């Protein structure tokens, strides 16, 4: 199935894994009928992306075993589920584009997005169930729990849109469910499939969850302070749509009365110049040190994640690819 060649440590880099997992996913034909059900699924999976969850699962598996092709079905299953969530998110958000291409409900229609998304959940479970029976029931339980958690997180996100009293702990719980549990689940399933101990699997879950939280907060930060050429999208989108991010909620918490009134004015505004709004809200963020507050929280979560990785009972050399990949994701030099 694969032409991959082991390096001298039998450990794989993220680039090697990405190349092989892309090949594996491309070979998933989904040739059942009716084609109108499966064409949107192939379209979504062909659009690629970072395959971050696939890489994390494979690297966790590779900490214990060298035959990484064995974990590819489960990695592809998690990727299929993740893409299902994007398909339905795009429909709920009425988004027109995803990764530079029309979303499924724009290219086909709303019904196609709903039904093909439903089929993706079933396909994801089929893929997760493939392979040997090592820790099979624990893997299914883990996948089921994180899949349900993502739905819960999405509902919280929807609920927050109509609330003016969202707290920072509530926001952190929402992004934990909507984003981080999939990263934690990815590494936990990889470890379980390799026969890791329950302690190791739980430590890896904690590692993935904390890194996922740090990654999401970094995304919040980059939406305000990032370079559009590097970030890949225009800056200030969260500000324009009044998204209740860690940044905005922290600004409310740390602002004086005058600054809070100014924030509330911009959040309530329905007729405004986009650049003026971004500039005004960012000025308040600058004044109360929101960038530094957010960076401190990112660093705290990142360190907690790495401490959990340190607890995993394998030799340090077997952790280096995973550690290095996360540093790369977080744009870290240490």
Describe this protein with a few key phrases:
334 residues; mainly alpha; Farnesyl Diphosphate Synthase; 2 domains; 16 helices; disordered N terminus
CATH superfamily of the largest domain: Farnesyl Diphosphate Synthase
Give the termini separation. Answer: 36 Å
If you compute it from the alpha carbons, what radius of gyration comes out, rounded to the nearest whole angstrom?
Answer: 21 Å
The top level CATH class name of the largest domain: Mainly Alpha
Portion of residues in beta strands equals under 5%
Q: Helix share of residues?
A: over 70%
pLDDT under 50 segments (min length 5)? 1-8
Number of helices: 16
Could you report the average pLDDT, rounded to the nearest whole number? 93
- Give me the secondary-structure category: mainly alpha
- Could you name the CATH topology of the largest domain? Farnesyl Diphosphate Synthase
Specify the biggest β-sheet.
2 strands, antiparallel
Name the strands of the widest sheet in spatial order: 1-2
How many structural domains? 2
Pattern of helices and strands = HHHHEEHHHHHHHHHHHH
Envelope shape? globular
Overall CATH architecture of the largest domain: Orthogonal Bundle
Beta strands, count: 2
């Amino acid at each position: 199935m694969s032409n991959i060649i082991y390096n001298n440590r039998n450990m794989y880099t993220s680039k090697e894994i990405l190349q092989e997992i892309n090949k594996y996913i491309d070979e998933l034909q989904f040739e059942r009928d009716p084609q109108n059900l499966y064409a949107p699924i192939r379209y979504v999976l062909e659009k690629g992306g970072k395959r971050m969850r696939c890489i994390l699962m494979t690297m966790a598996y590779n900490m214990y075993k060298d035959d990484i092709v064995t974990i590819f079905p489960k990695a592809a299953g998690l990727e299929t589920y993740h893409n299902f969530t994007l398909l339905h998110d795009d429909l709920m958000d009425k988004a027109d584009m995803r990764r530079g291409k029309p979303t499924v409900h724009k290219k086909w229609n709303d019904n196609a997005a709903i039904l093909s998304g439903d089929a993706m959940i079933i396909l994801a479970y089929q893929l997760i169930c493939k392979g040997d029976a090592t820790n099979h029931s624990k893997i299914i339980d883990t996948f089921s729990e994180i899949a349900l958690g993502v739905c819960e997180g999405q509902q919280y996100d929807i609920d927050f849109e109509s609330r003016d009293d969202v707290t920072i702990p509530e926001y952190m719980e929402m992004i934990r469910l909507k984003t981080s549990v999939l990263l934690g689940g990815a590494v936990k399933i990889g470890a379980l499939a390799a026969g890791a101990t329950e302690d190791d699997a739980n430590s890896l879950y904690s590692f993935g969850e904390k890194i996922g939280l740090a990654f999401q907060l970094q995304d919040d930060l980059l939406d305000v302070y990032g370079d559009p050429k590097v970030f890949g999208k225009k800056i200030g989108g969260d500000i324009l749509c009044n998204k209740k991010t860690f940044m905005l909620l922290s600004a409310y918490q740390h602002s004086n009365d005058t600054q809070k009134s100014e924030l509330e004015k911009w959040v309530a505004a329905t007729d405004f110049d986009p650049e003026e709004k971004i500039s005004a809200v960012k000025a308040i963020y600058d004044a109360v040190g929101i960038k530094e507050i957010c960076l401190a929280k990112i660093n705290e979560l990142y360190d907690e994640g790495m401490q959990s990785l340190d607890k995993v009972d394998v030799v340090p050399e077997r952790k280096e690819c995973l550690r290095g990949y996360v540093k790369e994701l977080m744009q870290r030099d240490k």
